[in-house]
Amino acid sequence: MRKLKSMPDLILRVGSFALLWGFASVAQEPGEPSPEGGPLTHEETIWRVLQDLESDNVDTRVGSIMLLGKYRAPEALSGVVSGLFDDHVRVRRAALVSLIEMQSSMPPSAVEPILLLLYDEDPEIRRMVSSSLGMLVNLWNTYFQSNEQVLTRQMFPLAIRQGFIQAFLDEEVVVRRNMLSDYFFLGIQLPESTLLTLLADEDDLVRLEALRLAGRLSRIDAILQMASLLVEDPVQSIRLLFANLLGSHNVSGGIEWLELLLEDRDDEVVKEAELSLFRILPHVREALRLTEHLMTGAFNQQQGLVFIQSLSLLKEQGRPFLESILESGNPTYRLEALRLFLAHADIQVDAAKLADLANDRSERVRLYLAGYLMTNRKKVPVSLIEDLTFARHDKMRETAMVLTRELPQNQAETLLLDFLIDETPRLRAQALDELKLRQYGDIRKILHLSLKDPDGLVQRRSVVLLIGLNDPEELNYLISVMEEDPKSQLAHYIKDQMLRRLGVQL
Length: 506
What we know:
Elements (H helix, E strand, L loop, with lengths): L8 H15 L18 H11 L5 H11 L5 H9 L6 H14 L8 H6 L6 H9 L1 H13 L12 H10 L5 H9 L10 H8 L4 H13 L3 H6 L1 H4 L5 H13 L6 H7 L5 H14 L3 H12 L5 H10 L8 H7 L5 H13 L7 H7 L5 H13 L6 H8 L4 H10 L5 H11 L5 H13 L5 H8 L5 H13 L3 H13 L4 H14 L4
């Protein structure tokens, strides 16, 4: 790899833009008088500026490119694209800046010559191209997707794909970083030799991103080839990721390196190595020790979640540890433990445990449990539905009410009657619906009493259900209630519903 340039990127970039805009005034501006005395049309201006591209003066060519970049006429854009092939670096920079500033309005024909500038001798040009890869690839793909004459996705030409690979080892660190960030846009396969070089790069961020990429590509052989360097890397996040990847991919050949990381100077790396060793060689004794780490906060949260997920490797032997974690003070841990616990739970056997979880402090935990019960509604025992009926949180009580639909008439009605005195008006109103749906024998009496409920929602629901009985006796009863206090909100609602539903004007 060639020696890096010492001049900061920012100085180069600012200098480039200053030069480009400084020379933009050399070309003829729109509106300059024509020889006949009138202002030039856009077409005439573009034609004149295009002639200036043939000038031997570099400043003139730079100014012409900058001026043509203000237009979107095809001939002007073609002129700007032609600047990408100019012998002078300042002209190429001017053309590249103008085209990149166009973003999605850039002509698709410019994409290929721009990408070929990854071979350019100028580091600033290579930096600009590599920082715009996402936009350039999207423009390329969009063009061919909208072209009905192209039936399949068009691959980049071989020269461009080779340019991509070469750019991963560019002497400019910014280029190498950009290439790693946009790897999955490029449609290439990175050679192992290139990946190995990147894993040993002098730049910390390049090494980290290369290791992350190797993990995503499951290039574990390459990682192991560089293990002797990675295990002693001066960057903590690289050693941490190295330990994580060995466990994530269950690499038996990584055990010796993980054992070395158990002696790492950073405690977080040590914990990551312990987790990875557990995933490769799960054991109850080690699970007990790591559960203690979890409960005492020795793991960071991501490590804690990874450990909980890895308890599934113990199968039935992992259940006691999950039950212990369900008592954790960390709601995220409890939710993850609940997911695994329910995956192998027996609703009949674990009914008491599930009833306790229905009162969990975390809403996320309760909602997940409610969803599980609704999915398995036909298996939920009566005892659990009864316990849920008196849960502290209304969402769980509402779940119980819905679950009563799976019960026989007498059992369901007993529980629904309890809901008529629930502290939440919405649930009292829903209970009326359920009793009406089940054709409860005393539904008329219940609805009469509910007209005196302290909450207007329950009163209004009772009115609607009584009208829905289509019984003249009940309609007369509603009229009598209205006449007792004609100015009350309930009276106005009865009058409105009688008119709306029956067409009766009171």
